[in-house]
Amino acid sequence: MSPLPPTADHAWLPPDPGHDLGSRAVAIDATGPLGETVRAELVALTARHGGSVSSPEGATVVLMTADRAADAGIDLEALEEVGDIPDDGFALVRAAGNVAVVGGSDRGLLYGFHHVRRAGLDLDAPDGVEVDAPAHPIRMLDHWDNVAVHPVMGRVERGYSGGSLFYDDGRLRPDLTRVGHYARLLASVGINRVALNNVNVHAAEARLLTDRLHDVVRLAEVFRPQGITVYLSVSFSSPMTLGGLPTADPLEESVQSWWRAAVDRVYDAIPDFGGFVVKADSEGQPGPFGYGRTHGDGANMLGRALAPHGGEVFWRAFVYNHQQDWRDRSTDRARAAYDHFAPLDGTFDDNVILQVKHGPMDFQVREPVSPVIGAVPRTRLALELQVTQEYTGQQRHACYLAPMWSQVLGFPFGDDAAPSVSQLVAGAAGAAADASAEAHSGGVVAVSNVGADEHWTGHPFAQANLYALGRLAWDPDLSPEGILDEWLGATFDDDAVRDAARSIMTGSWQTYESYTAPLGVGWMVRPGHHYGPDVDGYEYTPWGTYHFADRDGIGVDRSVATGTGYAGLYPEPWASRYERPETTPDELLLFFHHVPYTHRLHSGKTVIQHIYDSHFEGVERVEEMVAAWEAVADRAPSAVAQRVGERLAEQLRSAVEWRDQINTYFLRKSGIPDEQGRTIY
Ligand code: GCU
């Protein structure tokens, strides 16, 4: 095993930030592992910037938890006026040029510290109390890391950052220093949960639950001081594969007691263990269907083993038939999660969270929001996003995803007054249904993009996606542009470099969209690894991912009137809007409808001309990105400059390949020439 060398890339936490806080007299009144973490941060920061960690008397800044605030003479009445500080939240109490950072809990204190480190103290602000708390109680990253190298998926499934940060050569890395830095990065943006292994649980990884539990203990030790609870992906058939039972039927007493005993052992070793992530009956993974049981039966059985310890189950809704016959036009993969899970609403236990991918298919560059999110008001929900860029350029292409996530989180499930996706996953619908908000709260889960790479994320700019994920999970109303500016400000110290990086990343999601599959139809990627164009790569496969292009037109008819009925799974006004091509937004037209190439979009262009134009424009935009970076590269740290330069060169090569394959394919299919007579092969 090769040791993981320390990296010189500190991502958005270089040693120097936090001058405003570090140059003051600062006091901390807190105990426990998180109190110690904040104390150590303050000692390092003040040593670097000339301040000091002192007693509360005479300190300009005092950090403490709410339960200590009364003793310290903090005006709790003022706090009460703004309501209790939520658990992971914090209050900034300003009085006469001093600031108290009061955490609603130990985690809240840690997040309050990171807030003032990042944003400064603003000592000139008027006296008063400001409370900041996360919109979503659950802010989680799932790692698709394998302990043992998988023959097809390698060390990290869909990982583009040089292998696993945790495991190497079939073992946990002996030196977890980098994991500690990673945990600190995550804490600084408010992440509070991490799942430690791939949702496809192979043989070695299954044993993290049993005889490899010591590895989980060690990882929990590294994440704990940063307020991050650890979870395991488990295989539904563990009672058979690990326990030697003849069945994994969730209604069998022997199976239930096997899980109870396994869970008890985990909590003996890790009292603050979080729980399980489960991919069941999906893409070959075992599940309750194998025993004629429902997903409610399966999830609740695990939930009941975890409940006595306060643990949770994240049960994934990514369930569909991956062996469908491409000739069968009645089966629509987009419907699958809804058809499986909407009828189960209200049957899941309180510690089961249904984890739903943001779109109905699979993390394509453009999809409508999953209708499941609006269909299960009595179920706790987690919205699943993908920070790892499986379908958005695999961290070889610059593609800033915050604008997409921001749109998804803000999507209103109904008319403009209806709750947004963010409010629904935070628990709004459940709270309205029975007023016990706590029992219904959920949040955001995302697949991590981090690995052993010296820049953490392969493409240095992909760090911005990780940063933005945390910030949006905390506050979905933050603007993607503002988050980008925060990240640029923390990451680069040269203004010209920041400006160039900003110009490259702004609009990069739409740029990627413009040179890949058009108008929401998705796929058209190389099967298996999903990089680069292959228009018909999935067309005659069992995966349920088709575009149906012929000589006359393209797209999937998902209308109620003539198609699969998928459009009708949304509340109004969306159901009516998506039902007809005339009212479907251009960017989703081919997701919902099969139209002739001559169909005119709202933009005024025909579909075929849009395909040509967007593909030519996409490449031109990437050429501008390359030029923008070349102009400043010598001002950036050399390792970053080189890496970004290499990645942009590959992005340009790949965008040209996409452009030429897509345009050529559609010229040949349709026979309709480009109005501008550009070169198409
Ligand atoms: C995608 C991805 C798989 C992954 C799956 C999932 O299909 O390609 O590698 O296992 O999503 O989310 O479970």
UniProtKB/TrEMBL annotation:
Gene3D superfamilies: Alpha-glucuronidase, C-terminal domain, Glycosidases. Pfam families: Glyco_hydro_67C, Glyco_hydro_67M. Residues 457-678 form the Glycosyl hydrolase family 67 C-terminal domain. InterPro entries: A-glucoronidase_C_sf, GH, Glyco_hydro_67_C, Glyco_hydro_67_cat, Hex-like_dom2. Residues 131-456 form the Glycosyl hydrolase family 67 catalytic domain. Keywords: Hydrolase. SUPFAM superfamilies: (Trans)glycosidases, beta-N-acetylhexosaminidase-like domain. This is Alpha-glucuronidase.
